[in-house]
Amino acid sequence: MAKQGGGGKRPPGMTDVARAAGVSAQTVSRVLSGHPNVREQTRAEVLAAVSRLGYRRNNAARMLSSGRSRTIGVVTLRTTFYSRAAVMSGIEDAARSAGYAVSTATADSLDTFAIESALSRLIDQGVEGIVLAVPLINGSTRLEELTRATPTLTIDGSRTDATEVVAVDQSLTARLATRHLLDLGHETVWHLAGPAEWLEAASRRDGWRTTLESAGRAVPPPLEGDWSAASGYRAGLVLGRIPEVTAVFVAGDEMAFGVVRALRELGRRVPEDISVVGVDDIELAEYCAPPLTTVAQPFAQMGELAVAHLLRCVAAPETVPEPASVEPRLVVRASTAAPPGTREAPGRRETSGRRETPGTSVASGAPVASGAPVASGAVTSRDA
Hints:
The chain is of the alpha/beta class. The chain contains 12 helices and 15 strands. The strands form 3 sheets. It has a 7-stranded mixed β-sheet, with helices on both faces. The chain has a 6-stranded parallel β-sheet with strand order 2-1-3-4-5-11, sandwiched between helices. The protein has a two-stranded antiparallel sheet with strand order 13-14. One of its GO terms (molecular function) is DNA binding.
């Protein structure tokens, strides 16, 4: 290997990898960029040579020569909630598969200045596009300018004039949960909402309210939490002391865990006395006691769609792709049942500690054959 001045070894370059693998430097570049039109054997030989030589790409030099960073930025909110981490994982996996790196800028709050600062940091790094993964409600002139300067996509329902959207239908999320509880025979459904400044919380609250109104049911006053289990626990202590409460739709699984604990401490059994439905289907939901009925949010799919949508905007900035919507799915477990003092709801059966509601799609009301796969936006039942 060639020597540098002072006797030190120079790091291996792309030509060294090409020579070791018996291919051209262009082929090495295509492999490392994740290009699909490379034979698997060639890809394996190149990657083996990269590993053997300890080759690392010089991204700064690559950006200078190509004028492209092959990096996408993500603005996210500082939080420990599972849903944020799950979406980020989907974005990173999809970006890596497309040959892109991911740079993250964290905002400490939903204040527009904090979001603007995070966007500016990413633009200064030369990212090719940005995923805005914050539930932004209030925009600003500066925010509009920043999102016009760089292709930007949002995944939490927020939108500026210059952004594209990949979102879960949160109104459908609420309808699935509320309709499920009404179909079990509950007279009405109480609601523990997320923070008012979050768009997804507002959409779920609206979907819950309109479902009750459409069914001619009373709409109880909603409670509000902050997505944490502690806020769910505090709300549960309130709900558990209201005798007429038999069903609760909770806007997030972590809050639902707190609700279930509070109800248990008050001697209100789940689901015998009060049924509880959450949102997200995080990994712990099936291990709740009892396993939690919840509306699954397709976090990985959201991340994948966001990257694919954004890269289309990067490749053809003049085009305007249609907003993409991802449907949620109701997962029925053991935390919901018919209200106390009533017979088991028709069409329900107990199976291995879980409940299934065969025969009807909540989203459309269309018949579904028992045991057949059910599309997104429909009731499904599973242990995992």
